[in-house]
Amino acid sequence: MFIGVDVGGTFTDIAVNRDDGETLLLHKLPSTPDAPERAIVDGLSAILGQHSLSGDGVMRLAHGTTVGTNALIQRKHGKVALITSAGFRDLLEIGRQTRPSVYDMHSDHPAPLVERRLRIDVPQRTLADGSTHVPLDESAVLAAAARLGEENVDCVVVCFLHSYAFPEDEQRAAALLRKALPMNVSVLCSSDVYPEFREYERFSTTVLNAALITIIGSYLDRLTQSVADLGIGSEVKISQSAGGLMSIRMAREFPVRASLSGPAAGVQGAQRRALAAGFENIITLDVGGTSADVALLKDGNAIEVNERDLAGFPVRIPALDVNAVGAGGGSIAWIDRDDLLKVGPQSAGAVPGPLCYDLGGAEVTVTDANVMLGRLNSESLLAGRMPIKSELAVLGITALAERLGVAADEAALGILRVAAATMVKAIRSISVERGHHPGDFSLFVYGGAGALFATEVARDLGIPQIVVPPDPGILCAEGALNASLSTDFVVTTLSGLNKAGIAKLRDAAAELDARSTEWFASEDVPSHLQRRAWTVGARNFGQNYELTLELDLAKDDDALIADLTGTFLVAHEFTYGFASESEAVQIVNVAVKAIGELKKPELPMAPEIAPATPDGHRMTLFEGTERIETPLFSRSDLPKGQVIEGPAIVEQMDTTVLVFPGDRATTDPWGNLVIDVKGH
User: Fold this and answer.
1) Before 647, cis peptide (omega within 30)?
2) Which of 3, 170, 212, 663 could, after both became Cys, cross-link 61 (CB 3.0–4.6 A)?
3) What integer best gives the mean pLDDT of the chain?
4) Distance between CA atoms of 65 and 240, rounded to whole angstroms?
5) Cβ neighbours of 498 (radius 10 Å)
6) Can you list the domains of the chain with their CATH numbers?
7) b vs e for 238-255, b when ≥16 Cβ sit within 10 Å of the residue's Cβ?
8) How far is the C-alpha of 558 from the C-alpha of 35, rounded, in Å?
9) Residue 159, CB half-sphere, CA atoms under 13 Å: how many?
10) Per-residue pLDDT at 309
């Protein structure tokens, strides 16, 4: 068996693939934010017990988590101290001259995670060329250790200028601190976390990693023990922000790499499902209980970026380019000071949840609107395991409608339209604003609420086709179980694209090759399953940001220069709208993604059974003011080739699919429900 687990803000999802090409077992249950591992263990116990399965048959258990992100948002993280070069203790606070919101003069960056009194500078200064301007004062480092030893800190980070290229002083200071501080205090070097230039981003990433070490370490201890108690002997693998998995050992050392793991696992799951079914160009829409995450895949490839925001702080690590907005099933509807209806980003989450869950929620949510309009089952969700009280949703929305001065149905439709508009805006930012026409893509929807919004979003963007995978509410968990081991290494070069620069590039690549070889050995990856993907960051001299280009080290120097130059000009033209052949190109860094291929279980195919007939009907409001008697289908009854004319509703344990009037849905051989949107 292969098991994938995704812990979201509202639900915890579990997928079990028995690798027989037929069986994919699914389970979904409310998350337990106070102790996320409890929902995982309860879910695993339920699904293994329900199907009489033994934990010793598990070959791999992969897990995507939001524990780190939630800890940073709520400021429930470890206590961190910083040792830095003299004069740079306030770098974390100064940051960049950019505002979080361009048009909000009152919005400010979040307060640094390290209190100023715990940011200590010591005499030390290495220049950009590696020469020593001020030698490291070891006595000052020891004095700082003595001071911090009384502060009960969890982790101390050492961040010196230019240590991405010249880490010796950082390593020496760290050695002194480890010897002088208590054993329970972790010590990190920025040159170990992700050694790239740009001091502020490197410092910020290292501090974020340090803040998560104790939180994630404690969580992983509880999780691994709980999983072992179930008789599962396989080591838990953790999903990464860049896709792929890492070992528990790596997750303890570099927890920041898992900070955006859930959305990345979903993109990987969508990528595999879409390519298997022949969809190479897709825009993904993952709508969960708290947020909507969108990504664009062109020619089957997801886009990777090297810098993201995490709880308002810049983090410099490879990550899949996923744009998240606060619009999900639990997003709260509210009336702003301008008397206009707003939805999100606040969410009712798993607890207290929407009004209709009857768990103490007091605010109207998107889920309540879907229940009231008949789009969602008004009696229960999760295959009957979660009772629904539709009357509570009706009461809440009626009260909201009175404040807005509109009918209750109109208010409910308005809630959904506002939420859909937020999702459309998110998709425009990754498509139209980057030169892609949404109409050239299929909309691949997943998450528990993705299929409820698919048609409205597709129509607004001019997307002709919607693809709903067989188990959309569990796709992030499925993506995790189908992933491979991976990690990233980088060396900053800052060299020209010429003979001398290529020599420096090859030296850096040799260093990275050695480091990746060590990693493969530490993870016990056999040579025939090892793969390396090489890239460089390139820019014109004087530019602030670089473009990522693929690197083929097998080419000779002249061919490599010509290839990188041509590729850079094309990428620059596409990204910025122009490219100059006369401007010199600078190689900023060389990076390698080391991949340890893991066995991927087979994807089940759609069953070849008799065509399904409706299980019943429900009065549903799709648009306008009239409710329509809408046939209800069970997703598990749909065979390959089944055609459903809208209006229709397809229900399953993990989601509900709406087929609007005039649309047509067809089940393809892989079990995807492909919806052709009316008018396209």
Assistant:
1) yes
2) 3
3) 91
4) 9
5) 14
6) 75-218 (3.40.50), 331-419 (no CATH), 485-596 (3.30.1490)
7) bbbbbbbbbbbebbbbbb
8) 57
9) 34
10) 83
